[in-house]
Design brief:
Blueprint lengths: L1 E8 L3 H10 L7 E7 L4 E7 L13 E3 L4 E9 L2 H10 L9 H12 L9 E9 L4 E6 L8 E5 L2 E5 L2 H7 L8 H10 L13 E2 L4 E6 L2 E7 L15 H18 L7 E4 L4 H10 L7 E8 L10 H11 L3 E7 H6 L1 H8 L7 H14 L4 E3 L4 H5 L3 H12 L4 H12 L6 H10 L6 H7 L6 H5 L4 H7 L6 H7 L8 H27 L4 E3 L5 H7 L4 H4 L7 H7 L5 H4 L10 H6 L3 H7 L2 H7 L4 H13 L5 H17 L10
Parallel strand pairs: 13-14, 13-16, 14-15, 16-17
Antiparallel strand pairs: 1-3, 1-9, 2-3, 4-5, 5-6, 6-7, 7-11, 8-9, 8-10, 11-12
């Protein structure tokens, strides 16, 4: 894993090198740069050495006497097979890195080579032979990549903070994206907090020449769009899941440095560890020990993690954390994330990766993605039940929604019912997409200043999801439609970026075997009733793991990260809340009505509403603005 940054156009050498230094945490082992002033191209790279630790893995890497240059961030898990193919065609290799393999694959197949890669990556090839640059991101968006275009040309980088070194003028806030961060706690689609900075989408590629995007396209489409038939029997689905997960884990164990694993004690991470220990019986595993308790109603993971470690006979180390430490690290978290993602869960990744790095592990395997392939979230059960809503008149559904919203939000049951019925009056894809929303559109608009409302106009938060779902064949059932949203948005715009950035903050590479492309393709062939069987989510995965894990671990209650956020808002984070969301602060920022925010804080403090995550989102946006906007001389919505 590494950091990449570059440009096509009239940008400054020194600014590129400053951006490279801003990515030093992503690649503490080596760095390098390339400039072609005649072609107005610059590339830079910071390296975290994982495969082929020798200088032969240095980047930017070139062939044909420098005619083709490459910067690459990621890992290609099928690079050995590809290398054998290329050697059979006469290609000669100097080292043993996957970087060199994809460079030669580009020479052989050009842009078509992207479809041959099973891995996690962002790449930029500069081809001096025709003056073009090929920029691309992996199929599911595991590795982040941002870009900006202006009169000088196009610039890109692995992180926004580095991109702003190269293009400091790209500072105007985007009100539409701010609205989406508040609605979902993350921003679906290509938007970022900055109007002129965009994400390269998962599975997207572009050709750039002379600072202009000549062509952009999606080189990988999710299986749901390709009409793959979900025709597997229960038996074949269970056996195939077992074999596919094992193969994915085995493939992703390849490294020239120590490999460890996250172990929360949930099914996903436990399954990854179960198969990884077949290759390395002494696999180092890491988990969280949370002092002071988690959120009420949240199951403690630690006893389950210890149970799995004992069952599989693997070493387990726990990093101790407490509420005070976590609350104090919120500002650090937002800076590292580049985006105002309002979720404390990234801190878990940071703390575990810090411990792993101290213990010598530069690579960790994660269980991320299991719920997004096989089901497992509450919303998957909810969408399966929505056929019962369809029997009710829309007016009655709206009455139920309004009634549930008035339930006691201090109790988890009241919060869950309110969330379950939110959007009950909607139909079709709009109702499916609405399950991802944390706040209602009308509630948020009541917080916005007049200028924010003008800039927002008629834009809605749900637009990117509905646009994405429009080409989906109507024959795709509701649950598969939701899983497509999980894979395209919840993963690539939330879970995967924070996992990448918090791990790379301390020079650790995180791999996600459950999102191996072969496994993704296989999971698409499993019928929905085998994934979600009644109230049992992830049924096929659970059955597949019964020979390997304790029954009480496989069928334990679903548990998310239990940071006591509601307590933080009333205690640990209250001083920060009073400072950053004060009337003076909000007036200066110009995004929100001070009196509306003060009223929300009071209602949350008294327990009349549960607005903790909305307040964290407001807090995160202000923290982000102070670090990324104010420090660079701009304060207003652009």
């Amino acid at each position: 894993m590494c950091g990449i940054i570059g440009y096509s156009g009239r940008f400054d050498h020194g600014a590129l090198l400053c951006g490279m230094q801003s990515l030093a945490h992503r690649g503490p082992d080596d760095s390098g740069s390339f400039f072609d002033d005649a072609a107005a191209v610059g590339l830079a790279h910071t390296r975290l050495s994982i495969i082929d630790l020798s200088p032969l893995g240095h980047q930017p890497m070139s062939v044909l006497d420098g005619a083709v240059q490459l910067v690459f961030n990621g890992e290609i898990y099928n690079y050995r097979e590809l290398r054998k193919e290329l050697e059979a065609k006469g290609h000669v290799f100097r080292g043993h890195s996957d970087t060199e393999v994809i460079l030669h694959l580009y020479l052989e197949e050009g842009e078509q080579m992207l479809s041959r890669l099973n891995g996690i990556f962002t790449v930029a090839f500069f081809d001096r032979r025709n003056g073009s640059m090929l920029i691309a991101r992996d199929a599911l968006g595991v590795k982040p990549l941002y870009y900006t275009t202006n009169l000088r040309g196009l610039a890109f980088a692995s992180e926004i903070k580095a991109l702003l070194d190269l293009a400091p003028e790209a500072r105007a806030l985007d009100p539409v994206s701010i609205h989406r961060y508040l609605t979902y706690l993350w921003c679906p689609g290509e938007g970022t907090p900055l109007k002129d900075v965009r994400k390269v989408l998962p599975g997207e590629a572009m050709i750039v020449r002379n600072g202009t995007i000549e062509r952009r396209w999606i080189w990988y489409e999710l299986p749901a769009f390709r009409g793959i038939s979900a025709d597997l029997s229960e038996h074949d689905a269970v056996k195939g899941t077992e074999a596919s997960v094992r193969k994915a884990v085995e493939r992703q164990m390849v490294a020239d440095v120590p490999v460890g694993a996250f172990l929360s004690g949930g099914l996903d991470s436990s399954a990854v560890v179960a198969f990884a220990r077949e290759i390395n019986p002494q696999l180092q595993c890491f988990t969280i020990l949370q002092r002071g308790g988690a959120e009420p109603g949240v199951v403690d993971d630690l006893p389950y993690a210890r149970r799995v470690a004992k069952h599989l006979n693997v070493p387990l180390e726990a990093v101790e954390i407490d509420s005070s430490r976590m609350a104090g690290d919120i500002e650090r978290m937002i800076w590292q994330l580049d985006e105002p993602l309002a979720d404390p869960a990234p801190l878990n990744v940071l703390y575990i990766c810090e411990l792993a790095r101290k213990q010598g592990a530069k690579v960790l395997l994660s269980g991320a993605g299991g719920d997004d392939l096989f089901t497992g979230y509450r919303r998957h059960r909810a969408v399966e039940l929505q056929r019962y809503w369809d029997w009710m008149p829309r007016g009655l559904r709206g009455m139920i929604e309004r009634g549930a919203s008035k339930l006691d939000q201090r109790r988890s049951l009241g919060r869950q019912l309110a969330k379950f019925t939110n959007g009950a009056g909607l139909d079709g894809d709009a109702r499916i997409a609405n399950y991802f929303a944390w706040s209602r559109e009308s509630d948020l608009r009541a917080l916005y200043s007049d200028s924010m409302l003008r800039d927002l106009g008629a834009h809605t938060a749900i637009e990117p999801m509905l646009d994405f779902m429009r080409p989906l064949p109507r024959s795709v059932p509701p649950l598969e439609r939701m899983l497509a949203l999980e894979q395209r948005f919840f993963l690539s715009d939330h879970n995967l970026p924070y996992t990448d950035k918090m791990s790379m903050a301390v020079g650790v590479e995180v791999r996600v075997p459950l999102l191996d492309l072969e496994l993704v393709e296989f999971a698409a062939r499993i019928p929905t009733h085998v994934k979600q069987k009644g109230s049992v989510g992830k049924w096929v995965f659970k059955k597949a793991m019964e020979p390997y894990l304790p029954h009480d671990v496989i069928y334990r209650p679903k548990s998310g990260f239990g940071a006591p956020l509601r307590t933080w808002m009333r205690h640990e984070l209250r001083p920060l809340l009073n400072d950053l969301l004060s009337a003076d602060s909000l007036r200066r920022r110009g995004l929100f009505k001070p009196e509306a925010v003060a009223s929300l804080i009071d209602a949350n403090q008294s327990g009349r509403v549960d607005a903790s995550y909305t307040l964290l989102s407001l807090l995160s946006i202000e923290i982000w603005c102070r670090r990324f906007i104010d420090a660079r001389g701009a304060t207003k919505v652009g």
